[in-house]
Amino acid sequence: MSSLSSSPSTRSTQDVGPDDLIRVETVQTLTDLVASMPGLVILIDDSGDVLAETEAWAYGFGSEADLDKIPERSDAPASTSVSENDDRDVDTSFFARHDVDGNWRKVVRTCLDSEREVRDYDVPLRMPDGATYWIDFTARPWRARDSQGVMLHAVDRSNAHQAAVMRRQVEDRFDILIETISEGVLLMDQSGVFRDCNHAAEKILGRPAADIVGSRFSDNQWKGLRRDGTPLPNAEFPFWQAVVEREAIHEEVMGLYPPDGPPRWIRVNAQPLFKDEAEEEPYGVLACFDDITDEQLKDEALQASRDLLSSVLSSSLDGIMVFSAVRDDAGAIVDFECLLVNPQAEKMLNRSSEYLIGTRMLEEMPGHKENGLFDAYVDVVQTGEPFETEVHYSTDDFDRWLQIVAVRIEEGFAFTFRDISERKRAAQAMAATNEKLEQRNRALRDFAYIASHDLQEPLRKIGAFSNLVLEDYGDKIDETGQHYLERMQDAARRMSQLISDLLVYSRITTQARPFKPVDLETVVENVVMDLEMQIQDVDGTVDVGQLPTIDADSTQIRQVLQNLIGNALKFHRPDVPPVVKIRSEIVEAGDESVPTHETNAARFCRIIVSDNGIGFEQKYADRIFAPFKRLHGRSEYSGTGMGLAICRRIVERHGGDIRVVSTPGEGTTFIVQLPVDRHDADAANEPSVQDHATTPATLDE
To answer: Where would I find the Histidine kinase domain in this sequence (predicted)?
Structure first.
């Protein structure tokens, strides 16, 4: 960096005028004149011999006493004198004493040749002992009758020269220091124009020195920002404040926009510069600043996080409180002190945050000790394990069910609490309603059991007495009477079967066996054995493939397979022996055809029961699974219309599905898909122990 003030050290040799030559008759006239002159004056001839010198010159720049310090003439260069007439062993001439560089010979020659006065400033004058003086001089030519030379008048500027040298050294060291520090440095004059900057300033401000130096702080390129992000007026620029207030500005934070990109944030120290203590107006300002953009962004992010946390706390529907542990001398937690309360907590507790903050938990909420919450919070602080519970908290002015979650925070904990009184009341009401419904369902099941038992008994008596009538009084009843009795017996049997099927259907989900591994091949073998007579009557064939073992209710699965195989044998085409094929395959849960509801099973068993029977229109595929729905009259095919409805109910209870594909005159295919494995989540579908006890009896009926 260069200084705003400069000290010119120009060296120029200039001619004074054409009449500068001093003309004298004899040189004695000049020697007498020099001897009487004040100041630093020396008279030399054209060979450099000293003809006269003032006392000041002799005192300041040496005299004959210094001759022993002059080197031997033989050591001097060949042209050590303007003339060649000096044959002394020691050259005592002006040139030998002071002209180490030969510059003075040039001055004397120029002066004599031009016969004009020569001036120069800050010129070195060497001493025999090696010391150097810096002088301003005037050399004026003289000429006498038999000689010529120069009268040299000097002004000693050695002190000023030394001061200038020292100042330049200081400036150089200052520049080196400024360029090596990491802080940016700007030098601004009293008009607000930046005069210099270091490399760090270029880097921080994102601009080259050419864009900085010469610009004014109020130019558009220096749009500043306050710490809160609002525009910074020119009057508030720290650099300018130092000029206006004439005082140093410390630690002012401001933002500046680089040419491209987000603002840079700097912390500024600005020092006004005065030429001397008496100066009232600074001639400039030296501003040092460091880049605190990362720190500022971190502060902004932290503030944003605080604002966000504050928003969350303010908008939360849960009460939130933060407590710090209060310990005794032994380090044991004896209480908790409230540190933070959100608005919802204030509302729920009917206490202001000003009141709650600083209070002790056991003083403000003594019930926490009795209900165990205090010990739970102590455990949270000591172990770091979160705590969650639902508690009924009641005081003189507070009576609510609360859901509480507590987590450790440093030397304390934060807990959120939600008023779940409404949910608790609803749950209690729902439990009471469910209990009533359970009682009614239990009564209905008892009624159904009793009704079925009571209805079956009259039906059996109707059948028994009609048989007795036919056996004992058949010969006394005409054919019409016997026909009526036979129809009565048939109606009683159908009524009995209807009641039995209806009871089976209604108790599928309430009275069943738990899911256990079931070997489907064994189940099918037993079903085929049970249907052996029916198979022989229709000359049918049942072809059974490999079947897996699945978790199921064996009784209900047997019911499904018996109904499907029985239907396949029953609905065969006239004069065409029924052929029933049973196949299976395992499919993954992701298969599109696999049901995804009510079970978490990963694999399903697909059981396919196909026949070559009469078939039906596909549009009736859903209708046949409805209770009491039949596609044929009872005179054509026997049955109650409940078989397939029972199958669908059982399959759905197992978390599977059943569907049918049929073509009239070609046959029908039932596809049943059941989970292979059971999971804990499916256990809820299993019947209760109480229901298990009644299932066999119900099915038998």
So the answer is: 450-678
Q: Which domain holds residue 391?
A: 321-416
**Same-domain pairing of 131 and 194:** no
Give the C-alpha separation, 644 to 560, whole Å.
8
pTM > 0.70: no
Number of DSSP helices (H) and strands (E) in the chain, helices first: 21, 26
| Integer angstrom CA distances of residue 347 from 229, 312, 379 | 35, 16, 28
For the chain (701 residues), the mean pLDDT of every run of 10, in chain order, is: 37 48 88 88 90 87 57 43 46 79 87 90 84 90 91 91 87 80 88 90 90 90 87 90 90 89 90 82 90 88 84 86 92 92 88 90 86 91 92 81 90 90 90 90 73 76 86 86 86 81 71 83 93 91 94 91 92 91 89 67 91 92 85 78 89 90 93 84 48 36 27
Report if residue 684 sits inside a domain.
no
Residue with tokens 């705003």: 4
57 contact partners, CB below 8 Å, separation of at least 6: 40, 41, 42, 154
Three-class SS state of 681: helix
pLDDT for 681 equals: 52
Q: Are strands 40-45 and 148-156 parallel, antiparallel or unpaired?
A: antiparallel
Count, residues in the chain: 701
End-to-end CA distance of the chain, in Å?
Answer: 112
Q: How crowded is residue 466: how many other Cβ atoms within 10 Å of its Cβ?
A: 18
Cβ proximity of 542 and 609 under 8 Å: no
Beta bridge partners of 392: 401
Residue 690 lies in a domain: no
Distance CA 543, CA 533 (A): 16
Based on the fold, state whether residues 250 and 346 are members of the same structural domain.
Answer: no
Structure-token pair, residue 401: 């069910």
- Asked whether the beta carbons of 97 and 62 are under 8 A apart, the reply is yes
C-alpha dihedral (481, 483, 485, 488), degrees to nearest 10: -140
The type of residue at 165 is: V
Instruction: Please identify, among 382, 400, 416, the residue that sits at the C-terminal boundary of a domain.
Output: 416
Token couple for 332: 């044991």
| Phi, psi of 311, rounded to the nearest 5 degrees | -65, -40
Cα separation, 391 vs 374, in Å, equals 13
Residues 407 and 428 in one domain: no
In which region does residue 2 sit, left (phi positive, over 0), alpha (psi from -120 to 50) or beta (all else)? beta
Q: Write out the two tokens for 679.
A: 């999971």
SS (H, E, C) 623-679: HHHCCCCCCCCCCCCCCCCCHHHHHHHHHHHCCCEEEEEEECCCEEEEEEEEECCCC
The DSSP output letter for 403 is E
Q: Crossing angle, helix 554-570 and helix 689-700, to 10 degrees?
A: 30
Q: Is residue 39 part of a domain?
A: yes
* Coil vs helix vs strand at 163: helix
* CA atoms of 523 and 654, how far apart (whole Å): 16
Q: CA dist 483 to 389, 487, 491, 493, 690, Å?
A: 75, 6, 12, 15, 46
Domain count, the chain: 5
Residues 267 and 341 in one domain: no
**How far is Cα 183 from Cα 206, in angstroms, rounded to an integer?**
14
